[in-house]
Batch of 2 targets.
Target 1
Amino acid sequence: MKLNADSSLSKVHSAKQAEIELFWLICCNRGPSTNLFHLTLVITATICCWMMWAIVYLAQMKPLIVPILNEGE
Amino acid sequence: MGECCPPMDLFRSEPMQLVQIIIPIESAHLTVSYLGDLGLLQFKDLNAEKSPFQRTYAAQIKRSAEMARKLRFFKDQMLKANLPSSKSKRQVDVNVDNLEVKLGEFEAELIEINSNSEKLQRSYNELIEYKLVLEKAGEFFHSAQSSAALQQRENESRHIGDESLDTPLLLEQEASTDPSKQVKLGFLTGLVPRGKSLAFERILFRATRGNVFLRQAVVENPVTDPVSGEKVEKNVFVVFYSGERAKNKILKICEAFGANRYSFPEDLGRQAQMITEVSGRISELKTTIDIGLLHQGSLLQNIGEHFEHWNLLVRKEKSIYHHLNMLSLDVTKKCLVAEGWSPIFASKQIQDALQRAAFDSNSQVGAIFQVLHTQEAPPTYFRTNKFTSSFQEIVEAYGVAKYQEANPAVYTIVTFPFLFAVMFGDWGHGICLLLATLYLIGRERKLSSQKLGDIMEMAFGGRYVILLMAIFSIYTGLIYNEFFSVPFELFGSSAYACRDLSCRDATTAGLIKVRPTYPFGLDPVWHGSRSELPFLNSLKMKMSILLGVVQMNLGIIISFFNARFFRSGVNVWFQFIPQIIFLNSLFGYLSVLIVMKWWTGSKADLYHVMIYMFLSPTDELGENQLFSGQRTVQLVLLLLAFVSVPWMLFPKPFILKKQHQDRHQGQSYALLENTEESLQVNSNHDAHGHGEFEFSEVFVHQMIHTIEFVLGAVSNTASYLRLWALSLAHSELSSVFYDKVLLLAWGFNNVIILIVGIIVFICATVGVLLLMETLSAFLHALRLHWVEFQNKFYEGDGYKFYPFSFALLDDEDE
């Protein structure tokens, strides 16, 4: 059980590391102005995607209407 | 951006400078050629008032134009001969003067070969036709003669055989007069195009009032016409006539119908002799023509090997002289003066090129490079790569950025595909789009070198835009939980379940939420339920407004960066601040209300709140209240919005007027610094100084701007609702295709119907959803960027930097 948790932890860890490496690759290996440009792209994309998720999540959090199934089903 | 961080790539166009280069005349050609290789200098035309013929290098331009004409002639010839212009491995360096001589020789040779072979071909075709006439008419004469002889024999036998009282008395007379009449009959032979043969016959008949006898024989294979050189289907004809006048008429008619006549010997022996003679000459000519063609082919092959190289050389030469003509000649006629724009970072490279040119041309003195100061607006130059260039083009299709103005392309790279994807949310369709664009990107090197069709070219040019569009579509598709309109439980099971075990109320009262909210995207249970549309409409409408308000705020914030960059405090205090207050006090507040309503699960009616915020702001909100003190907040916001309108409108024109007055007063008393330079600048350029300050004009402009912003805040927010509309249309269309085509066909339990259904489904998906919907979502995303986003900050009245570069030469001409 512990081993299992360990491996899952390391998986999470390695995923995080890969993420950081990817971020590093995109944002921090060229000249300072290019890095800033790439950083802007990444930040804009992140904000857009996060907003989309947050809006849909929020809207479903306390629903005013609930799903009503169709008669046929 | 300035102090805190380094300047961002692509955010501002490259800083430019106006440079002056003084080039000794002997090294001018080489210098310009090196600058063309470098491709970082845009020459200014210093001889704009001179016509092309008055310029210094008009003669050289004419020469290169002549060479280009010769090359075009060779290209035509090569196309006719079906020879591709292959790139040869060995590129011999040729001098332009030698090339000119060489081209002249080749042209003369080719023209001679062509005219010879044309003559030969013509006589060859004539002979072929002649031979046909001989054969066909010969056949005809032969058969006529044999039938005549047969009749004669018959007559004679009758004459001799049963000479009785019954025999008509005149017969003998007739027979005896026949030969004498025959002598007077003349005939013409030739070929007439088959299409005209009927009309030809009719006209002949009418013109001679029926006194002709025409025989036609069809030639099976098309014949090459000697005059036009085209393949035409023809008939061989023989016309018999009597009398000189009829002959003249027939000759004229033949001419009018383009019928080629050929003399035909009556004598049978001579006919045979002619045929053999003609055949002999035909084969002779054939070999001559073949040899000629071979010679021409080898000549063209020879040219074809060098063609690309020469073509490039000649085009370079022409463009060099074209740019040399833009330089002004010094009074001493010993040097040329060039002026042009170049990015500041290129100064070093340009100076290097100048030095190399001076060295290579053994010039005594090098070129002089100096930077001029000017009031003129420099051109806009963004250093884009293959990824960013298509986004830059999207922005520039609206307008080229003003010099050093903030470039919306930086944000467009992400927001454009994102807004597209909001309207195109379906991860199945996204994957299709992704595969298509990955194909384009994978074969990038191959496709970029070949010519594509119009639409293909467009798709290929925007391949990286489509790539991002596809990736974002997959993301939004996952959020919308749609895969060809089919929901999947990818992120855990639905949060909803029946109220009780029997599930009786599921179709009346609905399900109940039993688990925490679906973690990522839309709960799959909504799909196909009766409350799907009300829920999705409300969600997507609110989402559109939230996204729109955020993007418009981003636009206004960029206008702040612009104002700071251009050091215009007026624009910060009297444009940026009131604008952001106005937008956020109305629609920012609406967004906050939307989020709060979701957060608290309140049943407040937001329409009501917004409308009565204007109509009766002092009234109690009652059950529509979302938080305590809402009424006060609303009053304050309303007040702020009302205040910000005159704030935007009035101060700016007055401040501008005052600034202008100060500047003029200061100017009249200021010391004249570095007089030499300013004099030089003024003499060279019309100083782009500030002219008369028209207060009324500025005020009207500001008024229009203010009204536009105030009304725009409302209409632009409403305009973002297109995100909702398009996304709704997309999901409805795809669900119709899925339910009404695929599932319907499935229901028949018949393989053939199923196959037909699948085919219809695929066609509809590709044609309507993947092509048309992509296009329409693309256009709407384009509009949202051009109008709703860019009108907050983008002036777009600059002009593009077009450097003199040999690398750009190819695209220009073709």
Target 2
Amino acid sequence: MLYLDHAATTPIRPETRVAMEPFLADGHGNPGGMHAVARAAKSALEDARERVAAAIGARHPLEVVFTGGGTESDNLAVAGAALGAGRRGGVVFSAIEHEAVRETAGFLGRLGCPVVEVPVDSDGLVDPDRVAASCDRDTAVVSVMAANNEVGVIQPVAEIAAAVREMSPSISVHSDAVQALVSEPVSIDDLGVDMLTISGHKLGGPPGVGALWVRDGLVLEPVLHGGGQEGGRRSGTPAVAPIVGLAAAVEAAVADRARFRRDVAAARDGFEQALAGLVPDAIVTASTVGRLVQHSHIRVPGVLAENLLINLDQQGLAAAAGSACHSGAVQASPVLRAMGWDDRAARECVRFTFGWTSDPGDGARAAARLVRALDGLR
Amino acid sequence: MKALVAMSGGVDSSVAAAMALDEGWDLVGITLKQWVGDDGSLPITGCCTLADAEDARRAAATLGIPHYVLDFTEEFAERVVDPFLDAYAGGLTPNPCVACNRDVRFGALVDRADALGCDVVVTGHHARVRDGDSGPRLLRATDRSKDQSYVLHAIGSDALRRARFPVGEITKGEVRRRAADLGMRVADKPDSQDLCFLGGSGPRDFLKTHAPDAMRPGNFVDVDGAVLGSHDGAAGFTIGQRRGLGVAVGEPRYVVSVDTGESTVVLGRREDLLASGCTVTGVGLIAPMEGPIEGSVQVRYRSEAAPALVTPAGDGGWVVEFTDPVEAVTPGQAAVLYRGDEVIGGGTIDRVAGSISRATGTISRVAGSISRVAGSISRVDGA
């Protein structure tokens, strides 16, 4: 199976497995206890926190809050900031945010928070001035992802943060860097944001663990209430083994980034160049703007993504469509709709995402399988 | 050779997949997402819901075949639900399963099979297909009590040629035994009962939400026109219905006709339900029919077929004359003609001819027109 669905989840890196193994074999300590077993767990937890903090340039490790994954981090950032200090603060977010942000904004809207969705252009780019213009004195938090999970378009987060800051320094800026961190340099200083979402399983860590970096001093209402772990921001006994795995994966991904960019770009570009010759009517989404090197979002006019994905699966190529419902059926993607696509075009798109296990030749191999999968579909 | 197997998550289609696999087909398992609830999401339990899709996925995994859920909500709404609402609004009682099999499972799904390179479509229907001199023949199932040839009558010869119904060859008990032998958790899953998209409620609740114009308050009247009570909408009452009428007249009363134009529901005695014949429109044939056929006609799903003389009446119509009167022959339902176990064809019941003196004027007029048509046909035959 040629696996080109790394944006959905990517294989666990060997560094992750090695780091986690001791805690799976004998990792029963609760970091909150007052004995040697607990202390061992606690020091592993804090060591992991330091490593994640260092990877993104955080000033203090305690600014890193471990969570149950990217979705929880987004919920904590957006809901936590909007509801912080007993407020019903406003939320401004882009129309192409992940559901973890969009649905949280919907929830906050039902609670009475003013919610503004900022449209994107036809390439899926968010305009910093439009974001700033959507803010007012009720706005508590702005959320714009570092790069989109479907089409891979990289957003001008630093410009957005600066524009919002100029408008009002009291507004918190959050960015979901779940897809970007594996291939793009992510430094919180350069981005100028206040909160950053990280997910484990998108960069070679285990699923079910993530982190939210929160700038020191920011007031957040917790989403999970309980025993007050993670500095009161995320209750629940920390999952030491997955957290250690997350830290190892973040470190490994940062160390591997230059190689990743070279190999994956070669594979992705090889794929798109081969397609240009083999399937000349295929259209690469957002090909003229900055995209993640691992993303290739392709529309083949006249071919339903649903059918193409099934044939690709039969040809031994794992790819994805934009959006699936709970039963697993392909749906027209809200991201593409936000980019102004009609339903029909949106249902003809397939996302190929390369990853750390891809080799440069995978692009040409994938193109050949895509040609075979298209056979009979038109 | 590749086959698409439509897996509903029920025991029949799960075992159908297992049997097709044994026959050597290279299978692609498909579950159709056909409808969503009024809030836009699928309920967890009930027919064609999340739990069913999961059951189908598990059955496919047990068999080691790929499985996908395809979104057919648009096709289903356009070709099944909308005509269903239109028919009720027109005072008819449709059978949406006939339209679903014709237009979705053996229509749009066969087109998908083409796109995916599948030669045949396997389903869990209880019916049998045999080769005949003039094309495929559709026969009743081995397990007569589970026979579904009635709802398959309209799928047409082309679709039938590519359809495979493995469980139609065995009994339901045998289906469940095989599922249990394979360790499938659906082995003892109950058969689905209701129409999937009604979400467990009756058609009247669904019509109130989706066709409010067809649900205007009106009267229950007796066969002579005397008012017996009132109702909040004529559509959705079914001929022969006795329960849920909300009127008491001291003895059992049945719905004998429905007029949505006047919003009037006529109630009568059981004998008022008897019909001597009916006309049928939109007839499709599976077996050749040169002239009148003496066979048996089934007028409702899961009911006995009644002996009848069926005469072609031009423009794809039939005149049906029952040997003995038949109860609750209902406009909008399908009439399917069988010769023995074989489906000749079928269409939609249009007008019903009463057999008794209490019949209304409309019914007598229809009866008159039937005998005229029948007469003209016998004259043609005689010549």
